[in-house]
Amino acid sequence: EVQLLESGGGLVQPGGSLRLSCEASGFTFSTAVMNWVRQAPGEGLEWVSAISDSGGSTYYADSVKGRFTISRDNFKSTLYLQMNSLRAEDTAVYYCGKDASMIPMDVWGKGTTVTVSS
Amino acid sequence: DIQMTQSPSTLSASVGDRVTITCRASQSFSSWLAWYQQKPGKAPKVLIYKTSSLHSGVPSRFSGSGSGTEFTLTVSSLQPDDFATYYCQQYNSYPWTFGQGTTVEIK
Question: What is the pLDDT of residue A101?
Answer without folding.
Answer: 82
